[in-house]
Design brief:
By secondary structure, the chain is an alpha+beta fold. Helices cover 25% and strands 30% of the residues. It has 5 domains: 100 residues, Rossmann fold, CATH 3.40.50; 64 residues, ATP-grasp fold, A domain (Dna Ligase, domain 1, 2-Layer Sandwich), CATH 3.30.1490.20; 130 residues, D-amino Acid Aminotransferase, Chain A, domain 1 (2-Layer Sandwich); 145 residues, Glycoprotein, Type 4 Pilin; 76 residues, RNA polymerase II/Efflux pump adaptor protein, barrel-sandwich hybrid domain (OB fold (Dihydrolipoamide Acetyltransferase, E2P)). An 8-stranded antiparallel β-sheet has the order 29-28-27-34-33-32-31-30, sandwiched between helices. It has a 5-stranded parallel β-sheet with strand order 3-2-1-4-5. Strands 14-17-25-23-22 form a 5-stranded mixed β-sheet. Helix 4 runs antiparallel to helix 5 and helix 12 packs antiparallel against helix 13. It is globular, with a radius of gyration of 27 Å. The C terminus is likely disordered.
Length: 702
């Protein structure tokens, strides 16, 4: 006789996570009338997810080890706030069996799989043994001690965890030992377990995964597959459903995938949401990689194609309800891209800093399934006014395009991203737009080798003519603002809105004490050009302009090699330009030295450059500077040591990744200004190599 399962009502959910996934769970809870509780670190005090929760509990500290990885503090927060359930999100403690057991022991509902499921799949080595026993195809593990050059390339992977942390590719046998050491350190920092293992690496494979659900009544569903092959550092950048590779091979491959995924879940009597991940080749053969015992970052592409709220389904299963009827079937297409604060052109360096503006007007849906018509959905973890810190993953948002046709969905998604307003740290937005418009991507030719085969996607979206027009609009809008009496600092920077620097504050104060009349920009005797310089990424543009009685003039150097540009009208926030006889409107919004210039072609953020360079800002030859804020976790040199070009000197941990600071030239360590445990800011001098004869930063992120 089967013991009946008692349904348990969930009335208040604490999300043991932060950012976008916390907001995502809160959205579903609101639609169901379930109260919400957030936990937050000191660094997240002003984050959007904290403000959206019905109640919030501070976890004192900033580092994950002191906050979001402290299960005891999270359970105590749930008790204090009166929560009766905990949703772990993804990352942090989401796949920690001990935490799940503690949640259950505290009498709370655990919105996740059974702790035994987490244990079984938590070890990549043990999970492969179980999957092999279930008849699921697997890649064999390699012993690091016996790997030969003929077996390369190999993949070093953390046994506990995922998300690309503790995962490195080795292509040279002499790099194996150091790579294992670095991956182990990274795994220990991210997951508390330094265990790593090796397996054969398929450089041009396809990353295919199947979303599964299991209930306590013995039902297992496979509800859709996704392709997530375009990755950087083994973290996904683009995800879509259905998978282009599976679409090419048809129903037979999909059925084999679903059968394998269901067998994997049934093998361990899986309960809740899970993802079975496979590595497939062009022939349609696939091998088990791992099973993630949680909701995936890319779950929106599945729920937008099957029309089911997957977080809601998690709540149902956690309360003891059965999966009723047949599994939902997919239709249409959905593509998700991850908008990150990082610089892809500089080896994916994570970025941090304040976000002054962030808006995506094309997004019709936020954290919810669109109504069935083509749409763009935005699941953002960051809002304007927040600061992207160095303590956590630098993902800003997930942007999801939904439609019936894959090509149209990709192009609409690209347009939405291109037209977004962003004033903050460098992002990968241009990269995403380029991928979505690239011909091989549109043809469904996506493998894990995509970035190596398509270097062109790293180019800026805005070409030279578009940047030139934006810079001209910014220059004349600035001149119009000064003509109307806007205060300006000593370097000519206009103060618009709230001051963002001490110089701005001084200029605003002086203007208030001694206001100037608004006399306009035209002068009868003013033959010289004024010059303003701007930067967009690594591109610098100078605009030489002057205002005459009959209009604006630009120097021949400003317009050289480009279209004819004339000013139709200019106001501080709105400029109309005639470009080769075609009029276009530009909006101009200034914050300090940043100007966001918007047009029908998209948004461009420019940074006005000072007229004079501060000599103290120029690094001396041999200086090793911090490329990002972070924590020093390893130092492999001392003052007086001789070093070679390319030798690792200092290792930083920033945004869950390890970054190597290497010497760019041979020499002797003359200065060493940091030690293990130190916090550093971007641009901080870390060390000086005497004898180096160049002026590079010596940074080599690996």
């Amino acid at each position: 006789m089967t013991t009946p399962i008692t349904l348990r009502t969930i009335s208040k959910v604490l999300v043991a996570n932060r950012g976008e996934i916390a907001r995502r769970v809160f959205a579903t809870c609101r639609t169901r009338g379930i109260a919400t509780v957030a936990v937050f670190s000191d660094a997240d005090e002003h984050a959007a997810f904290v403000a959206e929760a019905d109640a919030a509990v501070r976890l004192t500290g900033t580092a994950p080890a002191d906050t979001y990885l402290r299960g005891d503090l999270i359970i105590e927060a749930a008790r204090r706030a009166g929560a009766d359930a905990i949703h772990p999100g993804y990352g942090f403690l989401s796949e920690n069996a001990a935490f799940a057991r503690d949640v259950l022991a505290a009498g709370l509902v655990w919105i996740g799989p059974d702790p035994e499921n987490i244990d079984q799949m938590g070890s990549k080595v043990e999970s492969k043994r179980l999957m092999s026993a279930a008849g699921v195809p697997v890649l064999g593990e390699l012993d690091p001690e016996t790997i030969t050059a003929e077996q390369l390339p190999v993949l070093v992977k953390a046994s506990a965890g995922g998300g690309g942390r503790g995962m490195r590719v080795v292509e040279r046998i002499e790099d194996l030992a150091e790579t294992i050491r670095t991956a182990s350190l990274e795994a220990a920092s991210a997951f508390g377990d330094p265990t790593v293992f090796c397996e054969r690496y398929i450089p041009d494979g396809h990353h295919i995964e199947v979303q599964v659900f299991g209930d306590r009544h013995g039902t297992v569903w496979a509800v859709g597959e996704r392709e997530c092959s375009i990755q950087r550092r083994h973290q996904k950048v683009v995800e879509e459903a259905p998978a282009p590779l599976v679409e090419r091979h048809g129903t037979a491959m999909r059925e084999r995938l679903y059968d394998a995924a269901r067998a994997a879940a049934a093998q361990i009597s899986y309960v809740g949401a899970g993802t079975v991940e496979f590595l497939a080749d062009d022939r349609g053969d696939f091998f088990f990689l791992e099973m993630n015992t949680r909701l995936q970052v890319e779950h929106p592409v599945t729920e937008c194609t099957i029309g089911v709220d997957l977080v809601g389904l998690q709540l149902d299963v956690a309360s003891g309800a059965p999966l009723v009827g047949e599994p939902p079937t997919a239709s249409g297409h959905a593509i998700e891209v991850r908008l990150y604060a990082e610089d892809p052109a500089e080896n994916w360096q994570p970025q941090s800093g304040p976000v002054h503006a962030f808006a995506m007007p094309a997004a019709q849906s936020h954290f919810a399934i669109p109504d069935g018509s083509p749409a763009v959905r935005l699941d953002a973890g960051v809002s304007a006014g927040e600061t992207i810190s160095t303590f956590y993953d630098p993902m800003i948002a997930k942007v999801i395009g939904v439609g019936q046709d894959r090509t149209q969905t990709a192009l609409a998604l690209a347009s939405a991203i291109e037209r977004m307003t962003w004033d903050g740290p460098t992002t990968n937005a241009d990269l995403l737009v380029n991928i979505l418009r690239e011909s091989d991507f549109l043809a469904g030719e996506t493998t894990t080798a995509y970035f190596g085969e398509h270097p062109e996607v790293f180019a800026p979206v805005a070409g030279s003519d578009r940047l030139r027009a934006a810079a001209i609009a910014a220059a004349v809008a600035t001149a119009a603002a000064i003509g109307q009496g806007a205060p300006a600092g000593a370097d000519g920077t206009v103060v618009a809105g709230a001051p963002v620097s001490a110089q701005d504050a001084l200029a605003a104060h002086q203007a208030q004490r001694s206001p100037r009349p608004a006399i306009g920009g035209w002068r009868m005797f003013h033959p010289d050009y004024r010059s303003r310089s701007f930067a967009s990424g690594s591109t610098e543009l100078s605009v030489d302009y002057r205002q005459r009685r009959d209009g604006w003039e630009f120097s021949t150097e400003t317009l050289a090699g480009g279209p004819t540009i004339e000013v139709v009208s200019a106001m501080p926030g709105q400029v109309r330009l005639s470009i080769d006889g075609v009029e276009q409107r530009f909006s101009v919004e200034r914050r300090g030295s940043s100007l966001v210039v918007g047009s029908a072609a998209g948004s461009v953020t420019l940074h006005e450059l000072p007229h004079y360079t501060d000599p103290s800002a120029i690094a001396a030859p041999g200086s090793l500077l911090a490329p990002m804020p972070g924590t020093v976790v390893r130092v492999e040199a001392a003052i007086g040591d001789e070093v070679t070009a390319g030798q690792g000197i200092i290792w930083l941990e920033a945004m869950k990744m390890m970054h190597t600071i290497s010497s760019d030239a041979a020499g002797v360590v003359e200065e060493l200004r940091v030690s293990v445990g130190d916090q550093v800011d971007v641009g901080m001098l870390l060390a000086v190599i005497a004898g180096a004869d160049d002026d590079s930063t010596g940074e080599d992120v690996k």
